[in-house]
């Protein structure tokens, strides 16, 4: 064979990547990759790069239509046209690659579209499995010495003040002013909470916390720093479940900052501090769950005379929290924790904290009402109760039905009569007798309000005040 013999084989000539055959004259026979024929003069094979549209990627060889990426290689083409690679070039804008030769398009597997997709998915799954197995193999063994958290150095100590508006900040501000009250008397013993309202020793708490020690009993206040001091009852009001006691012989007391309860909003955050189950200084947090909740709580009887217009909260309140502060996130006291809803007690609301634990429904006396009562007690030694002078019961059709009217009372002076049904006081709806009592208790003596009756009449009433005689 001679050098010009077409059947001669050049050992140096490139071979087909799959069959290993050398090219015949003009290049690879049945070239599936779309390269142009090898020149007669020899040298490296020249590869044509498809000229796809820079934006659409359309192949001009097919009249501007996008090339079918899954068509079988070597398919029939119109006469005089050359099959182009169906894979986009590395450079989508058709610029030649650097380094002399254009980059060849990746070879297309000889599979139909559906089979190729399945094959790709299978490969991906297998690769994932192999990779996962490999990782598991390499991480399963020990690659070095063990790491132990006990050997790590301690982090830096916390520094700086608590963030403003945080539970931590409220606790830091209020805790020095909250006391545990240990009470004993002829009828038993117990404990509760209270908070300092003056530097000279006045402490605000619940009546039901201290009433056992009110007449000849003993009351001891235990402060945050462990100091103890004897306390005496200054005055108390069973109808609002508020009492004031005073300690002597303790200097540098820190009074709380009183907020206001008339602008509370449902959903706002609150913090409760007290001594639940004798665990002094316990801090819990939650939100205002509801407002103006009529609750028969406090006092020894739990009857209608002890109805309060409560702030409802889901902050954890338990036996021993009574008398402690409920505060907003500025650390201002907005209520006095007084009662919890306790299904275990059988009677539900207002049957005393000693018969159950926290279920996420607690009640506090609004601080606006407590402030007014405490101020009167400190100044006069006696609480004054707001009243209208009428008996009241639930009306069958809703509202509060008035019963016997006391002669000379605010109700009689306003023209109210037995049988009248009150459905609203100012803008507040009245749906029961307890709601009417609670609404009256929030008002101050001599304050005026408009009563709306079931027959659509309106009556202006001036509330009265009468001294409270504790039992």
TrEMBL record:
The keyword Hydrolase applies. One of its GO terms (biological process) is proteolysis. Keywords: Hydrolase, Membrane, Protease, Transmembrane, Transmembrane helix. Residues 377-457 form the PDZ domain. PROSITE patterns: PDZ (PS50106). The chain crosses the membrane at residues 116-138. It comes from the Bacteria. GO terms for molecular function: serine-type endopeptidase activity. InterPro entries: Chloro_Bact_Ser_Proteases (IPR051201), PDZ (IPR001478), PDZ_6 (IPR041489), PDZ_sf (IPR036034), Peptidase_S1_PA (IPR009003), Peptidase_S1_PA_chymotrypsin (IPR043504), Peptidase_S1C (IPR001940). Residues 1-106, 148-167 are annotated as: Disordered. Residues 65-86 have a biased composition (Polar residues). Residues 1-18 have a biased composition (Basic and acidic residues). Belongs to the peptidase S1C family. This is Putative serine protease PepD. It comes from Amycolatopsis tolypomycina.
């Amino acid at each position: 064979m001679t050098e010009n013999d077409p059947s001669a084989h050049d050992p140096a000539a490139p071979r087909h990547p799959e069959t290993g055959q050398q090219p015949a004259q003009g290049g690879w026979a049945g070239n599936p990759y779309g390269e142009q024929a090898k020149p007669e003069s020899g040298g490296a094979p020249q590869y044509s790069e498809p000229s796809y549209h820079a934006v659409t990627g359309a192949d001009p060889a097919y009249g501007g239509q996008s090339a079918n990426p899954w068509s079988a290689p070597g398919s029939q083409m119109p006469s005089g046209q050359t099959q182009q690679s169906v894979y986009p070039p590395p450079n989508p804008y058709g610029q030649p690659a650097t380094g002399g030769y254009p980059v060849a398009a990746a070879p297309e597997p000889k599979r139909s579209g559906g089979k190729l997709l399945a094959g790709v998915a299978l490969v991906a799954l297998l690769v994932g499995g192999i990779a996962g197995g490999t990782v598991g193999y390499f991480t399963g063994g020990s690659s070095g010495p063990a790491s132990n958290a006990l050997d790590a150095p301690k982090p830096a100590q916390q520094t700086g003040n608590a963030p403003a508006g945080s539970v931590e900040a409220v606790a830091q501000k209020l805790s020095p002013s909250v006391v545990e009250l240990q009470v004993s008397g002829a009828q038993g013993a117990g404990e509760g909470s209270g908070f300092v309202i003056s530097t000279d020793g006045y402490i605000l708490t619940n009546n039901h916390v201290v009433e056992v020690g009110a007449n000849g009993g003993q009351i001891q206040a235990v402060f945050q720093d462990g100091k103890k001091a004897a306390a005496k009852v200054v005055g108390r009001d069973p109808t609002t479940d508020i009492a004031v006691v005073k300690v002597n012989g303790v200097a540098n007391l820190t009074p709380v900052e009183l907020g206001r309860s008339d602008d509370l909003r449902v959903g706002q955050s609150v913090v409760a501090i007290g001594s639940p189950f004798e665990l002094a200084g316990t801090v819990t947090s939650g939100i205002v769950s509801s407002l103006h909740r009529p609750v028969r709580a406090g006092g020894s009887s739990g009857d209608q005379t002890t109805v309060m217009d409560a702030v409802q909260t889901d902050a954890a309140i338990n036996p021993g929290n009574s008398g402690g502060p409920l505060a907003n996130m500025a650390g201002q006291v907005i209520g006095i924790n007084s009662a919890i809803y306790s299904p275990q007690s059988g009677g539900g609301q207002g049957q005393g904290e000693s018969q159950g634990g926290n279920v996420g429904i607690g009640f506090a006396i609004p601080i606006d009402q407590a402030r007014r009562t405490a101020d009167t007690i400190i100044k006069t030694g006696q609480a004054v109760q707001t009243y209208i002078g009428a008996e009241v019961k639930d009306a069958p059709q809703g509202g509060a039905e008035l019963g016997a009217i006391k002669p000379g009372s605010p109700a009689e002076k306003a023209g109210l009569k037995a049988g009248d049904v009150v459905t609203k006081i100012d803008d507040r709806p009245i749906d029961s007798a307890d709601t009417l009592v609670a609404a009256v208790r929030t008002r101050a003596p001599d304050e005026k309000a408009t009563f709306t009756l079931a027959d659509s009449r309106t009556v202006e009433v001036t509330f009265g005040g009468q001294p409270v005689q504790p039992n």
